[in-house]
Amino acid sequence: QALLASLGVPLVHAHEGVGANLQDHLEVYHQFEVAAAASLAPHLAPWRKALIGARWLLQKEGLGATNHFEAGGFVRSAAGVEYPDIQIHFLPVAVSYDGASVAPSQTGHSLQMHVGFNRSASRGFVHATARAPPASPPPRPRVRFNYMSTEEDWVKMRAAVRIAREIVAQPAFDGLIGPELSPGASAESDAALDAYLAEHLESAYHPCGTCRMGPADDLGA
Protein backbone atom coordinates (compact mmCIF):
# COMPACT_ATOMS: atom_id res chain seq x y z
CA GLN A 1 0.00 0.00 0.00
CA ALA A 2 2.80 2.39 0.85
CA LEU A 3 4.43 1.80 -2.54
CA LEU A 4 1.21 2.53 -4.42
CA ALA A 5 0.60 5.65 -2.35
CA SER A 6 4.11 6.92 -3.11
CA LEU A 7 3.40 6.53 -6.83
CA GLY A 8 -0.03 8.11 -6.69
CA VAL A 9 -1.80 4.90 -7.68
CA PRO A 10 -5.32 4.52 -6.21
CA LEU A 11 -5.73 1.45 -4.02
CA VAL A 12 -8.36 -0.95 -5.35
CA HIS A 13 -7.60 -3.98 -3.21
CA ALA A 14 -4.88 -4.43 -0.60
CA HIS A 15 -2.86 -7.59 -1.14
CA GLU A 16 0.64 -7.83 0.26
CA GLY A 17 1.54 -10.75 -2.01
CA VAL A 18 1.45 -8.69 -5.20
CA GLY A 19 4.94 -8.55 -6.65
CA ALA A 20 6.44 -10.50 -3.75
CA ASN A 21 7.86 -14.03 -3.56
CA LEU A 22 10.06 -13.67 -6.67
CA GLN A 23 12.32 -16.70 -6.90
CA ASP A 24 14.68 -18.38 -9.33
CA HIS A 25 17.37 -21.02 -9.22
CA LEU A 26 20.99 -20.49 -10.13
CA GLU A 27 23.56 -22.72 -11.74
CA VAL A 28 27.26 -22.68 -12.49
CA TYR A 29 29.30 -24.33 -15.24
CA HIS A 30 31.66 -27.07 -14.09
CA GLN A 31 33.94 -27.63 -17.08
CA PHE A 32 36.32 -30.46 -17.93
CA GLU A 33 38.67 -31.32 -20.74
CA VAL A 34 37.68 -34.48 -22.60
CA ALA A 35 40.53 -36.85 -23.38
CA ALA A 36 38.77 -38.63 -26.25
CA ALA A 37 37.30 -37.22 -29.46
CA ALA A 38 33.83 -37.20 -27.96
CA SER A 39 32.44 -33.68 -27.76
CA LEU A 40 30.68 -31.05 -29.83
CA ALA A 41 33.61 -28.64 -29.72
CA PRO A 42 34.81 -29.28 -33.31
CA HIS A 43 31.29 -28.60 -34.60
CA LEU A 44 31.32 -24.99 -33.39
CA ALA A 45 33.24 -23.81 -36.46
CA PRO A 46 30.96 -21.55 -38.56
CA TRP A 47 31.00 -23.82 -41.62
CA ARG A 48 30.14 -26.84 -39.50
CA LYS A 49 27.26 -24.99 -37.86
CA ALA A 50 25.98 -24.07 -41.31
CA LEU A 51 25.98 -27.73 -42.32
CA ILE A 52 24.22 -28.71 -39.10
CA GLY A 53 21.54 -26.09 -39.71
CA ALA A 54 21.06 -27.12 -43.33
CA ARG A 55 20.71 -30.78 -42.39
CA TRP A 56 18.08 -29.97 -39.81
CA LEU A 57 16.15 -27.69 -42.18
CA LEU A 58 16.15 -30.26 -44.97
CA GLN A 59 16.01 -33.55 -43.12
CA LYS A 60 14.95 -32.69 -39.56
CA GLU A 61 17.79 -34.75 -38.13
CA GLY A 62 21.39 -34.56 -37.00
CA LEU A 63 23.03 -32.40 -34.33
CA GLY A 64 20.56 -29.59 -34.93
CA ALA A 65 17.64 -31.78 -33.87
CA THR A 66 18.52 -31.69 -30.16
CA ASN A 67 19.45 -29.10 -27.55
CA HIS A 68 22.16 -31.55 -26.37
CA PHE A 69 21.10 -31.49 -22.72
CA GLU A 70 20.31 -35.18 -22.97
CA ALA A 71 21.69 -36.40 -19.65
CA GLY A 72 21.02 -35.09 -16.20
CA GLY A 73 19.68 -35.89 -12.80
CA PHE A 74 18.73 -34.79 -9.31
CA VAL A 75 20.66 -35.70 -6.18
CA ARG A 76 20.55 -34.92 -2.47
CA SER A 77 23.12 -32.43 -1.28
CA ALA A 78 23.72 -34.45 1.88
CA ALA A 79 22.52 -37.50 3.75
CA GLY A 80 19.22 -36.88 5.49
CA VAL A 81 17.88 -34.38 2.95
CA GLU A 82 14.29 -35.44 2.30
CA TYR A 83 14.08 -34.62 -1.40
CA PRO A 84 16.77 -34.22 -4.06
CA ASP A 85 17.77 -30.56 -4.05
CA ILE A 86 20.69 -30.45 -6.48
CA GLN A 87 20.17 -30.51 -10.26
CA ILE A 88 22.90 -31.57 -12.66
CA HIS A 89 22.76 -31.71 -16.42
CA PHE A 90 25.48 -32.40 -18.94
CA LEU A 91 26.41 -30.58 -22.13
CA PRO A 92 28.95 -32.27 -24.44
CA VAL A 93 30.99 -29.08 -24.89
CA ALA A 94 32.31 -26.46 -22.46
CA VAL A 95 30.75 -23.27 -23.79
CA SER A 96 28.72 -20.28 -22.64
CA TYR A 97 24.98 -20.30 -23.27
CA ASP A 98 25.30 -17.85 -26.15
CA GLY A 99 28.15 -19.80 -27.74
CA ALA A 100 30.45 -16.78 -27.63
CA SER A 101 32.95 -18.28 -25.21
CA VAL A 102 34.41 -21.79 -25.58
CA ALA A 103 36.66 -23.12 -22.83
CA PRO A 104 40.21 -23.77 -24.08
CA SER A 105 41.16 -27.44 -24.17
CA GLN A 106 44.45 -29.10 -25.07
CA THR A 107 42.61 -31.94 -26.81
CA GLY A 108 40.09 -29.73 -28.58
CA HIS A 109 37.28 -31.52 -26.73
CA SER A 110 35.41 -30.61 -23.57
CA LEU A 111 32.21 -30.99 -21.59
CA GLN A 112 30.46 -29.16 -18.83
CA MET A 113 28.05 -29.97 -16.07
CA HIS A 114 25.49 -27.35 -15.14
CA VAL A 115 25.07 -27.71 -11.37
CA GLY A 116 22.80 -25.83 -9.01
CA PHE A 117 20.69 -25.75 -5.86
CA ASN A 118 16.99 -25.92 -6.71
CA ARG A 119 15.34 -25.23 -3.36
CA SER A 120 16.67 -21.83 -2.39
CA ALA A 121 14.82 -19.86 0.29
CA SER A 122 16.02 -16.54 -1.17
CA ARG A 123 13.09 -14.37 -2.25
CA GLY A 124 12.87 -11.13 -4.14
CA PHE A 125 10.24 -8.84 -5.61
CA VAL A 126 8.95 -6.99 -8.67
CA HIS A 127 7.82 -3.43 -7.87
CA ALA A 128 6.37 -0.63 -9.92
CA THR A 129 8.60 2.42 -10.23
CA ALA A 130 6.19 5.01 -11.62
CA ARG A 131 2.61 5.52 -12.67
CA ALA A 132 2.26 5.17 -16.43
CA PRO A 133 0.66 8.14 -18.19
CA PRO A 134 -2.40 7.25 -20.31
CA ALA A 135 -1.58 5.65 -23.69
CA SER A 136 2.10 5.44 -22.77
CA PRO A 137 4.29 2.36 -22.41
CA PRO A 138 4.50 1.23 -18.79
CA PRO A 139 7.70 2.23 -16.99
CA ARG A 140 10.20 -0.52 -16.35
CA PRO A 141 9.66 -2.21 -12.99
CA ARG A 142 12.25 -2.63 -10.29
CA VAL A 143 13.23 -6.30 -10.13
CA ARG A 144 15.37 -7.69 -7.34
CA PHE A 145 15.97 -11.42 -6.93
CA ASN A 146 18.12 -11.28 -3.78
CA TYR A 147 20.16 -14.19 -5.10
CA MET A 148 22.38 -16.07 -2.63
CA SER A 149 20.97 -14.13 0.31
CA THR A 150 21.01 -17.06 2.74
CA GLU A 151 23.93 -19.04 4.09
CA GLU A 152 22.17 -22.21 2.93
CA ASP A 153 22.51 -21.04 -0.68
CA TRP A 154 26.29 -20.98 -0.36
CA VAL A 155 26.48 -24.31 1.48
CA LYS A 156 24.33 -26.05 -1.13
CA MET A 157 26.09 -24.55 -4.14
CA ARG A 158 29.46 -25.66 -2.78
CA ALA A 159 27.97 -29.12 -2.31
CA ALA A 160 26.77 -29.12 -5.94
CA VAL A 161 30.29 -28.47 -7.24
CA ARG A 162 31.80 -31.14 -5.02
CA ILE A 163 29.16 -33.68 -6.02
CA ALA A 164 29.95 -32.98 -9.69
CA ARG A 165 33.58 -33.81 -8.97
CA GLU A 166 32.53 -37.07 -7.32
CA ILE A 167 30.52 -38.01 -10.38
CA VAL A 168 33.31 -37.51 -12.91
CA ALA A 169 35.69 -39.42 -10.63
CA GLN A 170 33.64 -42.60 -11.07
CA PRO A 171 35.09 -45.51 -13.11
CA ALA A 172 32.54 -44.92 -15.89
CA PHE A 173 34.51 -41.80 -16.85
CA ASP A 174 37.93 -43.46 -16.86
CA GLY A 175 39.85 -42.52 -20.00
CA LEU A 176 37.32 -39.84 -20.91
CA ILE A 177 37.69 -36.99 -18.43
CA GLY A 178 40.83 -34.87 -18.48
CA PRO A 179 41.80 -31.92 -16.28
CA GLU A 180 39.17 -29.74 -14.64
CA LEU A 181 39.02 -26.48 -16.59
CA SER A 182 36.83 -24.50 -14.20
CA PRO A 183 36.66 -23.78 -11.38
CA GLY A 184 39.93 -25.75 -11.46
CA ALA A 185 41.25 -28.50 -9.24
CA SER A 186 42.94 -25.97 -6.95
CA ALA A 187 39.55 -24.51 -5.94
CA GLU A 188 38.92 -26.81 -3.00
CA SER A 189 38.32 -24.61 0.04
CA ASP A 190 34.99 -22.99 0.82
CA ALA A 191 36.54 -19.58 0.20
CA ALA A 192 37.90 -20.56 -3.21
CA LEU A 193 34.58 -22.05 -4.29
CA ASP A 194 32.67 -19.02 -3.01
CA ALA A 195 34.90 -16.72 -5.05
CA TYR A 196 34.25 -18.78 -8.16
CA LEU A 197 30.51 -18.92 -7.51
CA ALA A 198 30.27 -15.18 -6.92
CA GLU A 199 31.92 -14.54 -10.29
CA HIS A 200 30.23 -17.21 -12.41
CA LEU A 201 26.76 -18.07 -11.11
CA GLU A 202 24.01 -17.57 -13.69
CA SER A 203 20.26 -17.76 -13.72
CA ALA A 204 18.79 -21.02 -14.96
CA TYR A 205 16.03 -18.87 -16.50
CA HIS A 206 13.07 -20.10 -14.45
CA PRO A 207 11.92 -17.04 -12.46
CA CYS A 208 8.48 -17.38 -10.92
CA GLY A 209 6.39 -16.80 -7.82
CA THR A 210 5.08 -13.22 -7.89
CA CYS A 211 1.61 -14.32 -8.98
CA ARG A 212 1.31 -17.76 -7.45
CA MET A 213 -1.98 -19.59 -7.03
CA GLY A 214 -3.31 -20.59 -3.63
CA PRO A 215 -6.33 -20.58 -1.30
CA ALA A 216 -8.11 -17.34 -0.42
CA ASP A 217 -6.58 -17.23 3.04
CA ASP A 218 -3.02 -17.36 1.67
CA LEU A 219 -1.87 -13.75 1.77
CA GLY A 220 0.97 -14.50 -0.62
CA ALA A 221 -1.24 -15.98 -3.35
UniProtKB/TrEMBL annotation:
Glucose-methanol-choline oxidoreductase C-terminal domain segment(s): 122-218
Domain of life: Eukaryota
GO MF assignments: flavin adenine dinucleotide binding; oxidoreductase activity, acting on CH-OH group of donors
InterPro entries referenced in this protein's UniProt entry, alphabetically: FAD/NAD-bd_sf, GMC_OxRdtase, GMC_OxRtase_C
Family designation: Belongs to the GMC oxidoreductase family.
Protein name, entry field: Glucose-methanol-choline oxidoreductase C-terminal domain-containing protein
